[in-house]
Amino acid sequence: MGEKIREHFERLEDPRQRRGRRHLLADMMVIALLAVICGAEDWSSVATFGRAKRKWFKSFLRLPYGIASHFTFERVFAALRPEAFERCFADWMAQLARCSGGQLIAIDGKTLRRSFDRASETAAIHMVSAWASANQVVLGQLATEAKSNEITAIPRLLELLDLEGATVTIDAEGCQTNIARKVVDQGGDYVLALKANQPTMHEEVKLFLDEAIARHGKDRNDTVLDFNQSTEGDHGRIETRRCWVTGEVDWFDDRPQWAGLNSLAAVECERTVGEETTCERRYFISSLAGTDAQVIARAVRNHWEIENKLHWVLDVGFGEDACRIRKGHGAENFSRLRRMALNLLRQEKTQRLGIKNKRLLAGWDHDYLLKLLTG
Predict the structure, then answer these.
(1) Residues 142 and 255 in one domain
(2) Is 322 inside a domain boundary?
(3) Cα–Cα 20 to 30 A to 4, which of 24, 137, 242, 371?
(4) CA–CA separation, 173 and 204 (whole Å)
């Protein structure tokens, strides 16, 4: 059992000099991950968790010198190369949640707010994550030093993923020709949001679609657009979503710059809460062939799951925004531990519990804790 758990971390390069190593890196990785699953939010609580369960850990880990101190955990994870840790993370997740044709992958970023270090003037870390909608797991993540650097981080993140047959959705920050090319070259499709970062293109697409939608409203037999509408309501809120898609893109002069561009879409969301109604219309470009508005509508809606089912859970359930780890690569690597923990909790289906109660059960029941790791 112990070797099966450890094998995922054996390939990681230990950042310490060989002469100074006492505690095995693979042992420390397992302890840290299990501690985060059970509620640890800093290195002190990780070490405390390890000491409290030392006898149990000894049954499947080597622990030649017992449990490392919190200073050792802090020092090792601050020095551990994030790129190597990410490869280990991505390989493990590839085994847990393999992408299949039709898979929706949302790319979005989140800032670790307390990672800003005023003393050293180190910028807050911005994590860009890839979220698999069907499996409800994080497939990979990379860090940048600012939100504006998502443009350079996204292509590197995409290289870590299997995109064959998948549809990638990205907010306006990632609406770039090189990112579209990267997705298509890796066998995937894209749905990219258009906003002010592509002002000319946004205006041209907006004018074309708004005029087509106005015509479509007068002539429902118009074949230029495909249309989809859905309405939902709860807790006094009524939300109507409308999506229009066209495959007419030959008129667009810059089309050759956008690899695989096949369709344009407008998505309108109308919300009524009490007596107040708001309406917003957004615009998208896509490589998806055909003009199926339902497919585009589903992709756009599922994109926002990354906010509700990943970022919100990390903040509220795992205390990510309050975490004050700052030394070296510690904040980024602890963030990766949180995402690994969340993935394992979501993948476990035998207990019909929420994330909070699964974490409590893991802390109480050693068999369940091992089950989370081994599947």
Answers:
(1) yes
(2) no
(3) 137
(4) 18
Do 165 and 19 share a structural domain? no
CB 48 within 8 A of CB 17: no
pLDDT at position 116: 58
Q: How many domains does the chain have?
A: 2
Q: pLDDT tens digits, residue range 283-300?
A: 999 999 877 999 999 999
Beta bridge partners of 170: 107, 192
Q: Could you report the per-residue pLDDT of 333-370, keeping only the tens digit for each?
A: 999 999 999 999 998 999 999 999 999 999 999 999 99
Cα separation, 116 vs 111, in Å, equals 10
pTM (two decimals): 0.89
User: Which residue segment(s) compose the domain that 23 sits in?
Assistant: 2-80+332-374
- The answer to whether residues 171 and 208 touch, using CB atoms and an 8 Å cutoff, is no
Q: Is 89 within a domain?
A: no
SS3 for 291-306, per residue? Answer: CCHHHHHHHHHHHCHH
pLDDT (tens digit, 9 = 90+) per residue, 12-69?
999 998 887 999 999 999 999 999 999 999 999 999 999 999 999 999 999 999 999 9
H or E stretch including 327? Answer: none
324 assigned to some structural domain: no
Looking at the structure, do residues 151 and 284 belong to the same domain, yes or no? yes
Q: Which of 157, 47, 136, 50 lies closest to 344 in space, CA to CA? A: 136
